[in-house]
Design a protein that fits this description.
Blueprint (H helix, E strand, L loop, with lengths): L2 H5 L6 E3 L2 E9 L5 E9 L9 E11 L2 E11 L5 E10 L2 E10 L4 E6 L4 E5 L5 E2 H13 L7 E5 L1 E17 L2 E13 L4 E9 L6 E8 L2 E7 L2
Parallel strand pairs: 10-11
Antiparallel strand pairs: 1-2, 2-3, 2-16, 3-4, 4-5, 5-6, 6-7, 7-8, 8-9, 11-12, 12-13, 13-14, 14-15, 15-16
Length: 223
Amino acid sequence: MSLRWILLPLLAATLTGATETLRYNVNWPSGLSLGEATLITDNVDSSAATRKFEFRLDASIPGFAVIDEVTSLAKPDFCSIRLDTKLKHGSKIREERTEFKPEEGFAERQTAKGGKTKMPLNTCGRDALALIYYLRSELKQGRLPGAQTIFFGAAYQISFKFGGSSNVQLASGTEPADKLDITIQGPASKHAIEVFFGRDALRTPLIFRVPLPLGAFTMELQR
């Protein structure tokens, strides 16, 4: 399971006007903190022609550091325009850009070393970062999105299922939440995660839980 899929949807809410800064603690199954992630948008609502989303991750285990920087540009309807990624996992570094060209029927991924890949695209393609905000927008309107394709290096099929309502325990206290079971099907893999969205007006994700052989890997909201 790639850490990018585990950690991309890390959110906590600090809201000032149209700018939102989101922070999470990243925790190992034992409860040991691995680091923090930050996600920022300069346009929470749809008032601008272009939305910008940023994700930064700084986490580590002994002998292995993960430093990720991801920037997404999207239209007001969360359809992606461009995705830039710089991922450093241990000694491996990957830099690439994906440009979304629905008028031409494809998304083009280009690596820093010059490699290019074209992926089929319909009228609206969403990258994994833009999808986070699209999902929140749909939940705010009382809707659960249908299965769709998202892009993050490759094309992935993703589906959502409502898992019930409950109270979740955070360091700051107990909060009501709705659980979503999210299934991610990649070219050669299939994974499932649990996400607990707060029942506040922003539908803030409170906890992400990823089942692993060693236990549940969690991300917890900082209040």
